[in-house]
Amino acid sequence: MAAGGPPESRGGPAPVGDDAHLVERAERSETRLEGGFLHVVLDHVRLPDGRMATREYVRHPGAVAVLPILDDGRIVLVRQYRHPVGTILLELPAGKLDDNETVLACAMRELQEETGYTAREWARAGVFNNAAAYSTEGIEIWFARGLVPGAQQLDEGEFVEVCTLDEAELDALASAGGLPDMKTMIGLQWLQRWRNGQWPLDWVAVS
Amino acid sequence: MAAGGPPESRGGPAPVGDDAHLVERAERSETRLEGGFLHVVLDHVRLPDGRMATREYVRHPGAVAVLPILDDGRIVLVRQYRHPVGTILLELPAGKLDDNETVLACAMRELQEETGYTAREWARAGVFNNAAAYSTEGIEIWFARGLVPGAQQLDEGEFVEVCTLDEAELDALASAGGLPDMKTMIGLQWLQRWRNGQWPLDWVAVS
After folding, report:
1. Would an 8 Å CB–CB cutoff place B20 in contact with chain A?
2. A187, B189 contact by CB (below 8 A)
3. CA-closest candidate to residue A204, choices A140, A123, A125
4. What are phi and psi of B191, to 5 degrees?
5. Looking at the complex, does the CB of residue A118 fall below 8 Å from at least one CB of chain B?
6. Which residue among the candidates B30, B121, B156, B158 is catalytic per the annotation?
7. pLDDT of res. A141
């Protein structure tokens, strides 16, 4: 990695030992909101220069998003209204981890609940931070194939429509601004790089 | 777009008029937290089936992320500690919109503050929702080129390290799980598709 702009550094993750000039340490934490849905905390942190600051953020259990591939290559997605952004988004099926649930178990549950599909093979792409400035959330993206259709099992008050698009349709949407959901953009990216033989997926069969 | 899973639909965005079976309508809103940093509201919404539900979420002013391209093709990024996720992330320079600030003005300001660089040409890739279940945030990604180095202008208590990587280095990091920041993954995706002549960027010169 080459050196560049004015304040120099190497790129990429490095052991924290090398990064004492960047790392903050929490000294105490208080609950700011214990909402029906959101849990907000305020931490008092020691900055690298020894001074104190506060960090207010959402404690999130983590989430999973699934990119389900039909045998003919089409992708199964969901359309749902997202009140905070006031619009219907086309998204990978996804949801939050339940207590004591493994990520793969969550992926299987959310795929089945939101789309009805079960899958014979699964592969983990990676885990991604979507709002690192104010949320602990990591979204782990899994691929699923060997899909078997079934009935949606939506929670009460959940309205989710299933649809299928092929890679070219998703790509055209993305380039035109029609795929604003970040996890879905990254799922498309990983799909294309995997199909081109560039990014890895290690499939495991489940029974 | 082909039909697929059990509950059928066409893909892609559609006018809300077609989507009355998905859309929620807010009937009243209350403030849940007016934090130093986070503003949380609780809306009471009318569901498509006529019942009521609540939606708790963060009101966010919106953000911008910048993908700055040096004349030799390398990309300028920043490394910073993100307390909510407890790690240092390699990210596109980014930040929240100030009151009454245009997105491009914010992009220019954040690029200069975090990296010192100013740019002669700018192009908008798109706007992306990173946490549509619980935040109004949209992150607009802009490309910058014709970079001129200068001095970082960090806020007090901000510790940001500049580094540069080329596309191949970023790609190798991404495929190995070393680029977990979502906006940065999408910036890389758009960079690669643009360089391949597939996704558009319309450059405008600024003086």
Report:
1. no
2. no
3. A123
4. -60, -45
5. no
6. B156
7. 98
CATH fold for the domain made of A63-205:
Nucleoside Triphosphate Pyrophosphohydrolase (3.90.79)
Q: Judge whether A124 and A93 are in contact, CB under 8 Å.
A: no
Cα–Cα distance for residue pair B5/A39, rounded to 1 Å: 35
Nearest-Cα distance to chain B for A106, in Å, is: 17
Those residues whose C-beta lies under 8 Å from the C-beta of residue B37, and which sit 6 or more positions away, are A54, A55, A56, A57, A134
pLDDT digits (tens, 9 = 90+) for A7-58: 334 344 444 458 999 999 999 999 999 988 999 999 999 999 999 999 999 9
Confidence at B36, pLDDT banded by 50, 70, 90: confident
ipTM: 0.92
Would the pLDDT of B118 be above 90?
yes
Query: Largest alpha-carbon pair distance within chain A?
Result: 58
Tokens at B66, concatenated: 């910048």
Q: Where are the domains of chain B?
A: 21-59, 63-200
**Structure tokens of B140?**
């607009």
Distance CA B94, CA B74 (A): 18
Which residues of B, range 68-107, sit inside 8 Å of A by Cβ?
70, 74, 76-77, 79-85, 87-91
Task: Name the strands in the sheet holding A52-59, side by side, starting at the edge strand that comes first in the sequence.
Answer: A25-34, A39-46, A52-59
Architecture per CATH, domain B63-200, reads as Alpha-Beta Complex (3.90)
Judged by CB atoms within 8 Å, which residues 120-139 of A form the interface with B?
126-139
Contact (CB<8Å) A5/B117: yes
